[in-house]
Amino acid sequence: MANITKKVSWSSRGDESGGGERTPLLNGSEEVRYTRQLSGDGGMFHIGRLSTVDLEEDMTSDEVNSIDCVKVNRFVFQSLDYDNSENQLFLEEERRMSFLGFKCLEISRWVICGLIGFLTGLIACCIDIAVENLAGVKYFVVKQNIEKFTEVGGLSISLILWAVLNAAFVMVGAIIVAFFEPGAAGSGIPQIKCYLNGVKIPRVVRLKTLVVKVCGVICSVAGGLAVGKEGPMIHSGAVVAAGVSQGRSTSLKKDFKIFEYFRRDTEKRDFVSAGAAAGVSAAFGAPVGGVLFSLEEGASFWNQMLTWRIFFASMISTFTLNFFLSIYNKKPGDLSSPGLINFGRFESDSVAYNLYEIPLFIVMGAAGGLLGALFNILNYWLTIFRIRYVHRPCLQVMEAMLVGAVTATVSFAMIYFSNDCQPLGPDQSEDYPLQLFCADGEYNSMATAFFNTPERSVRSLFHNPPGSYNPLTLSLFTLTYFFLACWTYGLTVSAGVFIPSLLIGAAWGRLFGILLASITPDGSIWADPGKYALIGAAAQLGGIVRMTLSLTVIMVEATGNVTYGLPIMLVLLTAKIVGDYFVEGLYDIHIKLQSVPFLHLEAPATSHWLTAREVMSAPVTCFNRIEKVGTIVDVLSNTSTNHNGFPVVVPVAASDDMGKVCGLILRSQLIVLLKHKVFVELARSRLTQRKLQLKDFRDAYPRFPPIQSIHVSQDERECMMDLTEFMNPTPYTVPQETSLPRVFKLFRALGLRHLVVVDSENRVVGLVTRKDLARYHLGKHGLEEMQLAQT
Amino acid sequence: MANITKKVSWSSRGDESGGGERTPLLNGSEEVRYTRQLSGDGGMFHIGRLSTVDLEEDMTSDEVNSIDCVKVNRFVFQSLDYDNSENQLFLEEERRMSFLGFKCLEISRWVICGLIGFLTGLIACCIDIAVENLAGVKYFVVKQNIEKFTEVGGLSISLILWAVLNAAFVMVGAIIVAFFEPGAAGSGIPQIKCYLNGVKIPRVVRLKTLVVKVCGVICSVAGGLAVGKEGPMIHSGAVVAAGVSQGRSTSLKKDFKIFEYFRRDTEKRDFVSAGAAAGVSAAFGAPVGGVLFSLEEGASFWNQMLTWRIFFASMISTFTLNFFLSIYNKKPGDLSSPGLINFGRFESDSVAYNLYEIPLFIVMGAAGGLLGALFNILNYWLTIFRIRYVHRPCLQVMEAMLVGAVTATVSFAMIYFSNDCQPLGPDQSEDYPLQLFCADGEYNSMATAFFNTPERSVRSLFHNPPGSYNPLTLSLFTLTYFFLACWTYGLTVSAGVFIPSLLIGAAWGRLFGILLASITPDGSIWADPGKYALIGAAAQLGGIVRMTLSLTVIMVEATGNVTYGLPIMLVLLTAKIVGDYFVEGLYDIHIKLQSVPFLHLEAPATSHWLTAREVMSAPVTCFNRIEKVGTIVDVLSNTSTNHNGFPVVVPVAASDDMGKVCGLILRSQLIVLLKHKVFVELARSRLTQRKLQLKDFRDAYPRFPPIQSIHVSQDERECMMDLTEFMNPTPYTVPQETSLPRVFKLFRALGLRHLVVVDSENRVVGLVTRKDLARYHLGKHGLEEMQLAQT
Question: N or C: which end of chain B has fewer CB within 10 A?
């Protein structure tokens, strides 16, 4: 009955008990706590193989061996069980529940979403205030110091002070990330994308990750890196959602005994999408943008009631942030400027655009696409390099510190050698105007871009009056910041790429605007540099991350003016089309580098000739309705397979070995059954035994114990287990002739984890899992099969 | 084999050949060309039965009989085949197609979306210009007349002139709708909702409907009815999309031989959603709102590439409208104020809101919900009345004319008796300031609300400075306009309810603001009446139509300022919650009144105890792989059943009558096969016979001939047909124990039309269609089964 020749599902069970869980780091850095034991059956896996750049060609086999331990991706991705297991227990519970019960559940969902929004907003507020104050102190100290030494000479001391301060902040941030929770590195958006796609990345929604993420992002932004605090907000929102919706913290061993109904993947994933939306909403003050972000990333499994709840969470999140910041800013109750980043208000009169500007916008979009692709390719190479050579935590911390110090040095050099002095107007809004070598009443224009938090620099580029920057300043700034940002993304610090992208784009956009104004006779009327800065920012960001719909709305909401809706859309679409021609978006690159079985939107176009028979994993390990405990334990203990779902079959009379499918049972369910010793014999002898309830499954969720921790005696191995009550009696099945696109559609639309393939007699012939579908993709030479994380 | 005891699918085939096609009118009016012959098997069906108000209780049986013919809903709703029939022809074509071929298809899709956007924008532009000019002439003439008679007395002549002009315009609009294309009545939004939901409403996307709709809406707005031109734009966009995407016009008998690949329901529906979005986008200048509208209404079957194309269509649509209007307004190229309705710019300084205003907004939302519910209930009763008594076209035209005349009379009376005179400022933006009995240099304030197109009135309410209206004027206006709008919606004219709703809300919102300012000591600072007018407008509109997400974005985009995003969201959510407590949204009421099998988002919460076995239709008419032509013709000709899909089965050896399912074939496919005489015997005799291709099916789409029009001789009846090549070999199946929510989820997520229910041996036991699922809904006493359109 139990044929095990090929993996049919992928899980970490074996690894967890064996060599310790590994965390895949989608920012490209690598954890060091790897295990040396490689499974024999092709578990070794080279990253180079799935990339467009084949790295192995120029390596000797020694080199290959030496980095095996790093390159092997024995990561522990699991699929989410988005399909409810409608077993008898579940149906009984649902049937017992009254209409009022369902109403209560619905209200709970709204309450949870409100809580998620509130807490996410609160976290955003804390981050903002902390960053403002830390960066304020830092810039104040450095400014004092520079002013002191400008006259007397010895500015190198100021430089050292600045660099040391930066490196110190960055060090703290890097240490907590590298040593305590590597999963908190990067922006977290790739991880959340994967989660919403249906892949569970270990430890990504834990409390510890949240704490490290929040502290990390404060340190890295205060440390003056070319990073933003917006990406991490999205991750934070998701963690908050995963925590709040479960009514308990597994890490803190605290169970509030509430929201127990929601302790399953189906419900949790819904809340996580609300959390991500709340994060976007808090980061950019863009509640609708947040909803669209969740939609764009988690486009399948969508429903309308969920959309409304997500919307509610986003709304509360912006509102909370807004409210607390208004109190902090001593204007309590003034709620008109939400979001961590505020692009400032674009006044309508100055921003009107004209038809003949549209081609210019499209050109800028294309430029953004090109620059974005360049950014992504450089970052890809850098990430490959990091995966190979910078994988120890201490090395990672040192690299981060180095980047921090270099950022300060480069900034200082740029400011020092710049001679772009601007008059300090009466309505001067510069926070730290550096006079340096400028005349009295003037300030160094380069410093407004470098000597500031990136958010403020963006705002200056958008809103400072024409003439605030000269073209040379802008081009130098663009050039240096581009490479700094590219180097920074993927460091072992918690940081986002949104703001640096916007900043690069705003700089060259403004440059473009200035040049345009200079070549047109009376161009100053329509070539407002701030407008072009905004368009450039959109183009650059679009070229790097390749989102369109949600990004348009986010930009529109952040500028507080819909006039630019159309040009921003056009620019983002152009940037996406141009960029996609060269390379994927930054997040997708990092997802691919980890060979996450990420399901794209549709099956590859030319895959109609593939059928379920060719795609599926076969033969499949099946169980009988009433199965011997020993068999079950043996199958579950088999570390070389780690199946996660098992069809339950009824043997066919005229027996060949495959039975008719009558259900599907999950590893997690079997584990709980074994733990509670739900054996037929015991039930007979102990008549009063408590019946297993759904609660027992929910209590074990989401960290089901590994099979090794469950003791089954030799006597018990001879017992029988009746699976009928616990299996899902109506798993989705497809005939084996079904085409891949059809299978894909079913799988993706319903968010399945296992799809049973049957023959015309309803006998099990195979099982389709996420990995079977994710490995096909459309390459340059038609359909290609790629290798995915081996787990 | 062919057991026909219960209807398993619903179609119009029989009716088309029999008593003439009937058009369901979702605006509540009724077509007169009904047929008297009622089918014996319960085809009679009372509307009252499915409504919350049981109308039959107070009627004698005579009365019931006398209106039978009106009440019988033998409408012709068909389901869309959103699931591709992946038969051998299709798979062969897909396999033959190269990667480049798919690229070309993708590009075609973008081109079509661009065209849809362009044409929709153009239509919007025509409507706008026509309405502006016609209304301009009308108001000019009436104003001249009033001014002439104000001094000398005899204003009743002016009144008559106004009433006659109104009635004349309305008459033209009503005549073309009532006599030529009743499907063009109303806003068209319910029809588009149904279409996106997967129900095909006959004639709803035809060219004739578009022409009548456009002319109709021009007449009704110019005729001074309490209507808007925005709803019809959405319908127009959808029709444009359905036409353009097919590359031919069936009505005009013109085939451009392009886009043939898209001639099937799957593709067409995608384009229609883009068209609807383009319509919204053109109507409100809200491209993102348009996308969200399509999302909110067609939430299932969603995918991301489609979203982007819809976005593109919306963008082009706004852009086109904007561009042509800018030329018309003599400011070519100035693209900064898009949309048919423009709420005018809310300047940021004047519109800041504060925390303590939030409760006020929520109160206004609740008020909007209440008033909306009242509006809906009144309109519901009115619609019932109309269905019973006003069902002849001439009666309908007369009612419309009456409403037109009454609107003029009431307006005139209100203006006449109003003594709210306001000084005519230097920056006066009134288009037709009526002095009437006011002093020189003053104008009648009531006239700005009544003597104007509703769009302009809305803008005046939003933007006129505080003090422009006195409270009495506003309350009288609210009261009269509320009832006028309620009476107007459902008339046999082409018109929307968005603008009247906004206008009512703006009026009482402004009133609220004024009252607020008067009771607060120095309230004038924050209680800007324009702000409250906006909130009131959102509340009222939300209370009537109950959309949240899309409406928020539409409102935000139309005001051109995101500051109000949060309050508008809150208000819309509150209005929805409060309103839903009493009655459904206006569109849903009208959909329900036509008993359209509309699938809601999710299965009713308490339906877990229902299984596929109880829900399905059984027994099912099945065919063999190789079936006798006579049998097929007989089944298709059976007018009492009108099945649309037939499982194809392989007989089981130990035969009871049900075979194992091996495919599914549609009526439309069988019709084409019969028409081309694809019989086994003929194929043998005529070896060179052209093989049937997908093109033959596409050419017949979407108006497949009725079976009666196909002549099959007695000899041919004895031939056999091989269905193997044409059937869908892998239809989705579910076991009969599957719970209703699970069936529902599968059905809705994949947009199915037929779902085969099988037993454990894979034998057909039943068929689930849209109607089987749509009839369950959650009533006040738990799960209720309702009766749906009998076809």
Answer: N
Say if A577 is an interface residue toward chain B (CB within 8 Å). no
Mean pLDDT of chain B: 80
CATH of A108-329, one of 3.40.30.10, 3.30.450.70, 1.10.3080.10, 3.40.50.720: 1.10.3080.10
- Region A34-48 average pLDDT: 35
pLDDT tens-place string over residues B301-333: 567 778 888 988 998 898 888 888 888 887 766
Q: Provide the β-strand partners of residue A189.
A: none
**What is the greatest pairwise CA distance in chain A?**
99
A566 with B319: Cβ contact below 8 A:
yes
Residue B347 has pLDDT above 70, yes or no: no
Measured CA to CA, the distance from residue B561 to residue A709 in angstroms comes to: 59
What span, in angstroms and rounded, lies between the C-alpha atoms of A477 and A460? 14
8 Å CB contact of B745 and A745: no
B residues 682-741 lying closer than 8 A (beta carbon) to A:
729-730, 732-735, 737-739
User: Right CATH number for A349-392+414-594 from 1.10.3080.10, 3.40.50.720, 3.40.50.300, 3.40.1410.10?
Assistant: 1.10.3080.10
pLDDT at B749: 81
Question: Which two structure tokens, joined as six digits, stand for B313?
Answer: 């269509």
Architecture of domain B612-785: Roll (3.10)
Neighbours of B525 (CB within 10 A): 9
Interval B35-53: pLDDT, tens: 333 333 333 333 333 333 3
**With an 8 Å Cβ cutoff, is B570 touching chain A?**
yes
Show residues of chain A in contact with B91, CB under 8 Å: 608-609, 739
Question: What mean pLDDT do residues B117-142 have?
Answer: 92
Q: Which of A433-447, A722-736, B61-75, B100-114 has the lowest mean pLDDT?
A: B61-75
ipTM of the complex: 0.83
Would you call B745 an interface residue with chain A, using a CB distance cutoff of 8 Å? yes
Q: Do the chains contact at B353 and A338, CB–CB below 8 Å? A: no
Cα–Cα distance between A627 and A569 in angstroms, integer? 58
CA dist A465 and A520 (Å) reads 18
- Mutation choice for B interface testing from A288, A360, A652, A748 by most B CBs within 10 A: A288
The shortest CB-CB distance from A319 to any of B311, B566, B660 is to B566
Residue B548 contacts A, CB cutoff 8 Å: yes
Phi and psi (nearest 5°) for A473?
-55, -50
Q: Does residue B429 have a pLDDT over 70?
A: no
Q: In the block, which residue shows the tokens 């400072």?
A: A464
* Domains A108-329 and A349-392+414-594 agree in fold: yes
Domain residue ranges in chain B: 108-329, 349-392+414-594, 612-785
The label of the residue with tokens 């009033």 reads B146
Residues B495, B499, B501, B503, Cα dihedral to 10°: -140
- On the question of a cis peptide bond just before residue B702, with omega within 30 degrees of 0, the verdict is yes
CB atoms within 10 A of CB B219: 28
